[in-house]
Amino acid sequence: MVSERATSGLGNTRARARTVSVAYAGGEERRGPVTMGQANMIRCILRDEPALINIHDVWPAPAGTRLEAAVDALRALAVRHEALRTTFPHPPGSAPREQVVSAAGTFTVTVLDHDELPAEPARYAEALAREARHGRFHLDRDFPLRVSLVALGGAPVFVALAASHAVTDVSALAVLKEEWLALLSGEELPPLTAFTPLDLAAEEATPTGLRKSAASLGHWERIIRTGPQAMFAEPGAEGTEVRAPQLTLRSRRGARALALVAERTGGLPQTVLLTAWCALLAHRTGQAACVAAVPTSNRYEPRLARSVNTLAQDALLTLDVRVPSFDVLLSKAWGAALNAYRHSRFDAVSLWEMIGRTTFERGSVFARDIVFNDVSTLPTALPSTLPSDRAPSVTGPDLELGWGEEQVLPTRVLTFVHETDPLLRLGVWADPALFPREQAEGFLVGLVRLLEAAATGDVPLDALTEVTGVRPVERGPDWERVDGSWVSPPAVAEALSQALDGVPVHVHVTADPPRDGELPDGDAEAGLTAYIASGGAALTPAGAHAAFMDALPGRPGLLAPRRYVIVQDAPAEADRSGAWLRQQILSEGTGRDRRM
Description:
With 596 residues, the protein is of the alpha+beta class. It has helices at 36-47, 50-53, 67-80, 121-132, 170-184, 197-204, 207-226, 252-265, 269-285, 302-305, 326-342, 348-362, 437-456, 464-468, 489-499, 541-550, 577-581, and strands spanning 2-7, 13-25, 30-33, 55-60, 86-87, 98-101, 104-114, 145-152, 155-163, 242-251, 289-293, 316-320, 370-374, 400-409, 413-419, 424-430, 480-482, 485-487, 505-511, 526-533, 563-567, 585-589. Strands 1-2-7-8-9-4 form a six-stranded mixed β-sheet, with helices on both faces. Strands 13-15-16-10-14 form a five-stranded mixed β-sheet. Strands 19-20-21-22 form a four-stranded mixed β-sheet.
């Protein structure tokens, strides 16, 4: 079928569109259980809008590529990689538990042939790939790549594709891109040595694999019980989803400084950059620790490094920044990162059951505020999110900032590290309510300044404002550090009162004995006590806690009281803790099924 139509949202770009059906055969038919990573992503696929969970990429075709060769290379990838021949049969209304690998099948490629390409063809291909993310993949039958070939006069220029996150992640797409380019250049691909999804599923089911999963849950639980419940617990941080524009940094200065810091300290460039990023974010948020999800880092095992699979399970990093200097922090960062990487394989259902139980007991909501995705070491990692008509080169800008499209994200700051040499290239999406454009740009400039300062010597962490120009957030007198988190007690009282139909509530900070595993800095010893005037209504601590927890999502400045005290009526001096203490107590407890 051949038709002429307008394509993408970049104006009236005209293309002759036709669909090519591609048959493949020669693979091996297999079946078995899903992996933990697949189960994790399938859970998101069934819950979230496809544009939020599907992923995409853009592959530039080498000059002189023929259409038939481009299609043949895609066919070869389908035969080579089991993930591309995988479907997930399951009854309606249920989540797949099994994956089936076909030996043969078909997929389609949409060819968009142009007489003339737009002025920015890479950005046009990027828009096509993003547009393709909006369609939902049917797990039980669809080929997991939705492919468009952008052609000029019949010659391929770009592959723009959307991919199912059930079988691919960013790293997997980078491997596929490298192999596609190698096939087009006439290279013979080496034998596969990386784990297939079914190989990984088999290893995960062994006693060793199950012990690793259990250890991962313990690692996560310790952080969720004792770390800051949200990195951005501050005025302006609201809601569970953020619409944020993309900000791109390209900097030769940053790359030079990063290399010099690595040379001076003996640290890996990726660890140096992660340390600087965490130090600056903890400084900006006024937190004692940086808690961040680092998704791509669970490919640290050789058998997983080049696996075409979805390994998109978070490695949860916690880095205590209460040290005197950058060098000391860097010396701790690799161990903290490795600990996170080792605990990034888990059963997603068990993880979220644990998170639900732990946060209910703590009285918090775990906020995945910071995501740091370093894809700079992936093969041919030219990012789809930062399209460019030319390959990066040492002649790039000293420091260049550029703004791009908005994206809806369930996080406050999402960072992709695309390149560290010869340019430092980052793509960042930051909540505009917390980072207006000038402050977002200032933060990235401050990161480069921190690297430049650390290139010549150790940097005291108490000098970060002077060194970087980035100032800690101002929270105001109503905010306090409670149980390792920044909290506004008056806002807790207001929210609890609203959750209980407007009854009077007073909340104050008390010093309770620290719980096992808490940070030994004194902050974790502080807890909240809520006094509630029931007015004779039937109210229990358990009912108060449940009502407050229902009101908690999207409000990171709130933390549930550790203790609820129910009294009959509010005292005349309702703003004084001492007056509430003199009221007759009707009942009291934690509201968590155990009395205090």
